[in-house]
């Protein structure tokens, strides 16, 4: 799934530039992705359009600290939680975007929940929302697409 998302980010200006879903699926198959990877990635992209359980205006106006429940603590390595905290503190991610990334990470198999995968999911959210990023943070997140990162 992560590789499909990275491909989409690298090859399309934004989600509005996607061809119709069926054509996009065929394109991704031609590139070499399997049906499961494609389906999971497109579902992940589709979920960006869904309303969150907590209204966006409440999340965006929140100054509260994020407390992770036991399931999240067991699943999300400290390095991933640290990355999300860093990005939110530096205003690269807002609370609503952070929650999307947390939910997307929790849908991955445990062994796939890594800092690099978290960076790619953060990029997906920021790309889909057409968010502006500080240059150094953007460069580091973009490096995750090719597997050459240093920020933790």
Question: What would you note in describing this structure?
Answer:
This protein is mostly helical and 152 residues long. Helix content is 61%, strand content 0%. Helix 1 crosses helix 3, helix 1 (2-11) crosses helix 8 and helix 7 packs across helix 8.
Helical content (DSSP H or I, runs of 4+): 55-70%
Low-confidence stretches: none
Q: What is the CA-CA span between the terminal residues?
A: 22 Å
Structural Rg = 15 Å
Order of helices and strands: HHHHHHHHH
Strand content: under 5%
Q: How would you sum up the major sheet?
A: none
**Estimated structural class:** mainly alpha
Could you tell me the mean pLDDT?
83
Count of DSSP H/I helices: 9
Shape descriptor reads globular
Which SSEs are present, and which pair or pack?
Blueprint: H1 2-11, H2 21-31, H3 35-47, H4 56-60, H5 70-75, H6 78-89, H7 95-106, H8 115-128, H9 135-143
Helix pairs in contact: 1-3, 1-8, 2-3, 7-8
Keywords:
single chain; 152 residues; mainly alpha; 0% strand
Outline of this structure?
The protein has 152 residues and is mainly α.
